[in-house]
Design brief:
The chain is mostly beta strands and about 290 residues long. The protein has strands spanning about 15, 25, 40-50, 55, 60, 70-85, 90-100, 110-115, 120-130, 135-150, 165-175, 180-190, 200-210, 215-225, 240-255, 260-270, 275-285. It has a twelve-stranded antiparallel β-barrel with strand order 3-6-7-9-10-11-12-13-14-15-16-17. It has a two-stranded antiparallel sheet with strand order 1-2. A two-stranded antiparallel ribbon has the order 4-5. The two termini are about 15 Å apart.
């Protein structure tokens, strides 16, 4: 498989800015593929997300007042990845987010907030690469920081983030078969400022990366530290947030160095989080 012809779905960013607790939930920015020295990708992506059901603690309910209806989040993100060496990549992501709450009182207007959210910068390192008879086995690590770029509200019913600077570290492994099928597994931990609970991060992908297309099934889980409270009586950013989301992502090249990617994701369970459905698409330029 050539890194120059296969643009992986790490190039697609799924941003979720949820009502009330408004965590920066997203599909992981890192995976088990390396770009290679001097090669990179730029991705301009759009995502649309909506929900009308919410977990208050672990109890599933309708979305809360004053909205009571559908909560919609849209984001435009610029993502870049570049191979500093064959075994070291740098990743940068910058999202602009708009969140809208539909007011259940027909005489009151809908509410909107928008702005730049948090810039993220990561390094991904592959210290061990083992070729096998049927493919290759990689062991990787990634670390990075995300920090707010604008003075958005962090303790509001409708918000685009929690004004938290986060330091994340992940360990990853990937087995890639000569046929193009692969499996990625990740585990990590996120340390967060502004009284936002720290969290354990888990992720996995099962997919196919070939010359003519890419496709994967993915899962992402966050488990906040257990001493954090549920919604009620504390600022929204201090709330414990657990979730599991699953999805499918794909990429097809159009011309040399240019392609399009699409994805669908769904939150399937959690704690103090909306059961959102997300649809995403992007234009990918590879060089």
């Amino acid at each position: 498989m050539s890194n120059r012809t296969i643009i992986l779905l790490s190039s697609i960013t799924f941003i979720s800015s949820l009502l009330l607790i408004a965590p920066a939930n997203s599909q992981s920015l890192t995976d088990g593929f390396m770009k290679g020295k001097g090669h990179g990708s730029l991705v301009l992506s759009y995502s649309w997300e909506q929900y009308d059901e919410f977990y208050f603690g672990t109890e599933q309910m309708d979305a809360p007042p004053p909205f009571g209806g559908e909560i919609t989040t849209q984001s435009v993100s610029l993502y870049g990845i570049y191979g500093l060496t064959d075994n070291l990549d740098i990743i940068v992501n910058l999202p602009f987010i708009t969140a809208q709450g539909a007011n259940e009182d027909l005489d009151a207007p809908d509410q909107n907030v928008n702005g730049l959210q948090d810039v993220a910068v990561f390094l991904k390192w592959r210290p061990l690469y083992i070729e096998t008879e049927g493919g290759s086995l990689s062991f990787l690590g990634a670390a990075g920081v995300a920090t707010p770029l604008s003075d958005y509200a962090d303790n509001a019913v409708l918000s685009i983030g929690n004004q938290s600077t986060r330091v994340d570290a992940r360990l990853m492994t990937q087995y890639f078969m000569n046929s193009g099928f692969f499996i990625d597994l990740q585990a990590g931990y996120s340390i967060r400022s502004n009284d936002v609970p720290n969290a354990t991060l888990l992720a996995g992908k099962l997919g196919y990366a070939g010359k003519n297309f890419y496709l994967d099934l993915w899962s992402e889980t966050q488990i906040s530290d257990s001493d954090a409270p549920d919604i009620g009586g504390v600022p929204f950013n201090e709330t414990r947030v657990n979730y599991t989301q699953i999805g499918i992502s794909g990429y097809v090249p159009i011309t040399s160095g240019l392609g399009v990617s699409v994805g669908v994701g769904q939150f399937v369970g959690g704690r103090n989080v909306g059961l959102a459905t997300r649809v995403s698409g992007g234009v990918v330029y590879s060089f």
